[in-house]
Write a structure and sequence with these properties.
This protein has helices spanning 3-24, 29-38, 43-68, 73-95, 101-120, 133-137, 159-176, 181-191, 196-220, 226-247, 252-276, and strands at residues 142-145, 151-154. The chain is mainly alpha-helical. It has one domain. It has a two-stranded antiparallel sheet. A hairpin with a 5-residue loop joins strand 1 (142-145) and strand 2.
Length: 279
């Protein structure tokens, strides 16, 4: 494969990764890492590049969501404390090669399967504007524009549980380079009972900070290469900007289903490669 062909394939894949990452709050790493490994890139370099992609995705889509008034900035900044601590710890484990690559690949797949299955589960209707005592104390409740243009109020529950899940999400981000957007959406959507569009957009806002913490460790260890990062950053940024415009007028149920099926396919493939030693 020539350098030009490699770069074009990486760019096209990155555009798709940015689009998916923006629509689902994942950050795009779930596509970038398998794409790079398929192209023969070492798994550690794939993780470092994916973290850069996550930062670009967050930068491209978060601004649009904040402008539209969907992102809960206060909740995002509060939960970033947990994710940043976790990301540094996870990145140190992998960058120092304390965990073998096949184990990281299998873990990557297992986390994605759990995310996909959880997203397909039916959820009970959210109670309107009900907020826990801790949610009220930290003023984490908010509003977002509904389909008819009116502001929809919502509350936040189980703040402590969500905080610790975010810390685990940070560890996964540092370990796998995926931004852990899936786990962040799960934490806000299932545990804290935040509406899906708010959890997705707030996840996009948060993942850039989480990924930056992990990327710093990978950069110190030489796992971030400009030749890989340049086409990835440009691609995911373009995809993220397009995805941010689509999400605001999209059907969240269809997004959940499409997101889950795709993630399940990627997860099974990564587990197979990890078990058979192909990665």
């Amino acid at each position: 494969m020539t350098t030009l062909t490699f770069t074009l394939l990486l760019f096209i894949g990155s555009v798709l990764a940015g689009l998916l990452g923006s629509l689902t709050g994942l950050g795009g790493g779930v596509i970038i890492i398998p794409l790079l490994t398929y192209l023969g890139v070492d798994f550690h370099y794939a993780i470092g590049t994916a973290l850069v992609a996550v930062i670009a995705t967050s930068s491209g889509s978060a601004a649009a969501y904040v402008k539209e008034g969907v992102t809960n900035l206060r909740m995002g900044m509060f939960l970033e404390i947990a994710t940043t601590i976790g990301a540094v710890f996870g990145a140190l484990l992998v960058a120092s090669r304390l965990i073998p690559t096949p184990i990281v690949a299998v873990l990557f797949g297992v986390i994605l399967i759990l995310s996909a299955v959880n997203s397909l589960r039916k959820r009970p209707a959210l109670a309107a504007n009900v907020c826990s005592k801790m949610g009220q104390k930290f003023k984490l409740s908010g509003t977002y524009p509904g389909e008819d243009g009116r502001l929809v109020k919502y509350g936040v529950k189980n703040v402590v549980g969500g905080f610790f899940m975010m810390m685990l999400a940070g560890v996964i981000s540092g370990l796998l380079g995926i931004g852990a957007g899936a786990m962040k959406v799960i934490a806000m959507d299932n545990i804290m009972r935040v509406p899906f569009k708010v959890s997705t957009t707030t996840s996009n806002f948060m993942i850039g900070v989480t990924a930056t913490a992990g990327a710093f460790i990978y950069l110190q260890n030489g796992y971030i290469q400009p030749a890989l990062c340049m086409p990835v950053m440009i691609g995911v940024l373009l995809g993220a900007i397009g995805g941010s415009k689509i999400l605001l007028q999209s059907n969240t149920a269809k997004l959940r289903f499409g997101f889950s099926i795709f993630i399940l396919m990627v997860a099974l493939d990564m587990i197979y490669k990890g078990v058979t030693g192909q990665i």
